[in-house]
Write a structure and sequence with these properties.
Layout (H helix, E strand, L loop, with lengths): L3 H28 L4 H18 L7 E2 L2 H15 L3 H24 L11 H24 L8 H10 L6 H17 L7 H11 L1 H6 L25 H29 L6 H17 L6 E2 L1 H9 L6 H21 L4 H13 L8 H6 L3 H14 L1 H21 L3 E7 L3 E4 L12 E6 L8 H14 L5 E5 L8 H16 L3 E5 L3 H10 L14 H6 L6
Parallel strand pairs: 5-6, 6-7
Antiparallel strand pairs: 1-2, 3-4, 3-5
Helix pairs in contact: 1-2, 1-8, 1-12, 1-13, 1-14, 2-11, 2-13, 3-4, 3-10, 4-10, 4-11, 5-6, 5-14, 5-16, 5-17, 7-8, 7-14, 16-17, 18-19
């Protein structure tokens, strides 16, 4: 039976992490274009719901910078500049995100985060962090702006540099410097220290024109979901799904990273349901979307958390802070909140993240295209363009015919002649191997390349096709193989298939091509196929 002493590490972790989460929650409300209480409500919803239903011991489910930025972009696209309309859309979108999470969990679609490739996420995170940091600059300098897009906003900021308010800028830069310095000291809630200091100086700052947070109305009213005039369900559904994908990719990345670190199992479908309930509750109470951000989860682990009780303890501490300190929270200078957002996203702004892609010479175009897509086309369109570009590059790779001619080294091994030119070949036998799985989009060009190899070696009477890269064959591949068999037969040659997977062999046996009898399918190795030695059935 657990003892009070066993709860102590979680209680201390919750106490420590609350000082980071509360200021970030208020800051992310502004980033989402919502009142300050939206982030506080989301913080409670995320911590309590995931603490009761989730499975990760370390995940801190709160408002995140990426989801706040996406929500702001979505509500701006749907509702324009009208604040009341944007708030109405925000509640519907967050609830829609929760429903999408729960439906995905019920269907056990926990692996769907893999649909967004890691290079896309890396580039998207970098570009999004850049966009978020630039969008906080008007708050930092207390400058009303008209532009919402990245490049026009940069131009407007530069054009009106003379109108920047120096006291506001000084407050923001001092807060930012404090956050970076305190961030190097373990177990010190830098955000809380900076907030306390800025609140202490709020009277002097307000007298010099620095804007403060203002009233926070924490009133739990019954949810009202009134679709604004002219609204359509299709874009709402699309934006909700986009929010869900981004939140789950971010959350699952954090949860999986710490599960691997501590040798714990991951239950993605259960976490989908927990995140769904958390977003459903947050949206019903007019909060922001919530997910398991990496920075909060890492801070929770570093604070010594042992179980999900740390999140519940953090919720209790935040509740206490809100009840006792709400008047002071309302006096937080807005430049300090902007500094917290910039500091939070700065972790994604390290150019070193591109180092591996440049060194490995893989996926470089995808990473840089993702950064450009977000900065040029916006948060939502940028993500969709980046995903589409990564899929296009994948299709391009899979459909580019790459066929190796093989030769023998040693007694039985067959390797590529391009890499091992001294490998032995048999004059009347051609051994070829497609270097990618065969499917409908590449079957014709790959087998056309095989024909070209046969024409280059006209004395070949046996063509061995090694299909170890193809776990299964679709109908387009079957038809193309049938055509290849007929073509070879007309030239007086025969086709033998080596290293077939079970599913591929079964479908070829059912196809029953006259020029490809069962005897041509039962070769367990390339060497057996060359020698004509079938495996016993």
């Amino acid at each position: 039976m657990p003892t009070p002493r066993s709860y102590l590490p979680d209680a201390l972790a919750g106490l420590s992490i609350a000082g980071l989460l509360l200021p970030e929650a208020v800051a992310y409300s502004g980033l989402a274009g919502l009142p300050p209480q939206a982030g506080v409500i989301a913080l409670f919803a995320g911590l309590v719901c995931y603490g009761l239903l989730g499975r990760s011991r370390y995940a801190m489910v709160t408002a995140t910078s990426s989801s706040a930025a996406v929500l702001a972009s979505a509500t701006l696209a749907l509702g324009g500049a009208d604040a009341a309309t944007r708030i109405a859309y925000a509640s519907i979108l967050v609830v829609g995100t929760g429903l999408a999470f729960m439906m995905s969990g019920a269907l056990r679609l926990g692996a769907m985060s893999s649909l967004i490739a890691r290079p896309v996420l890396r580039g998207y995170s970098f570009g999004l962090a850049l966009v978020i940091a630039v969008k906080q600059w008007p708050t930092l300098v207390h400058l009303p702006v008209q532009s919402g897009s990245f490049l026009p906003l940069l131009q407007e900021l530069a054009r009106h540099a003379g109108a920047w308010q120096l006291p506001s800028l000084g407050c923001g830069l001092a807060a930012l410097a404090g956050l970076f310095v305190l961030g190097r000291i373990p177990r010190v809630p830098g955000a809380l220290v900076v907030i306390v200091a800025s609140v202490a100086a709020s009277g002097w700052l307000a007298a010099h024109g620095v804007a403060l947070t203002g009233p926070i109305h924490l009133v739990l009213a019954p949810p009202e979901f009134v679709l604004p005039p002219g609204a359509h369900w299709l874009p709402l559904t699309e934006f909700s799904l986009a929010l869900m994908f981004i939140l789950f990719a971010e959350s699952y990345g954090s949860i999986r990273a710490f599960a691997l670190k501590h040798d714990e199992p991951v239950q993605p479908s259960r976490d989908l349901l927990a995140l769904g309930v958390a977003n459903l509750v947050s949206g019903a109470l007019q909060g922001t979307p919530v997910g398991a951000g990496y920075s909060g989860t890492a801070a929770n682990e570093a604070a010594g958390a042992q179980s999900r009780l740390a999140g519940l303890a953090a919720a209790a501490v935040v509740l206490l802070l809100v009840v006792l300190c709400l008047p002071w929270i309302e006096r937080i200078p807005q430049p300090a909140l902007a500094a917290i957002v910039i500091h939070a996203v700065s972790k994604s702004l390290h150019p070193g993240m591109f180092g591996n892609y440049l060194r490995w010479q893989r996926d470089r175009l995808i990473v840089f295209a993702s950064v450009l897509a977000v900065t040029l086309f916006g948060v939502l369109n940028g993500l969709l363009i980046a995903i589409a570009f990564s899929l296009a590059m994948l299709i391009r790779s899979l459909t580019s015919p790459r066929v190796s001619v093989l030769g023998r080294v040693g007694a039985h091994d067959y390797v590529s002649l391009a890499r091992f030119p001294n490998a032995v070949t048999v004059p009347d036998t051609l051994v070829v191997r497609p270097e990618q799985p065969l499917f409908f989009a590449n079957a014709d060009p790959v087998l056309a390349e095989v024909r070209a190899r046969v024409l280059a070696q006209p004395q070949a009477r046996v063509v061995v096709l090694s299909l170890e890269e193809s776990p299964d064959l679709d109908t387009s591949v079957l038809e193309a193989l049938g055509e290849l068999c007929a073509w070879l037969s007309a030239r007086g040659a025969q086709l033998r298939l080596a290293r077939l997977k079970d599913a591929a062999r079964d479908v070829l046996a059912r196809a029953g091509f006259a020029q490809l009898p069962a005897a041509a399918l039962d070769y367990s190795s390339v060497d057996d196929a060359v020698r004509g030695q079938r495996i016993a059935p």
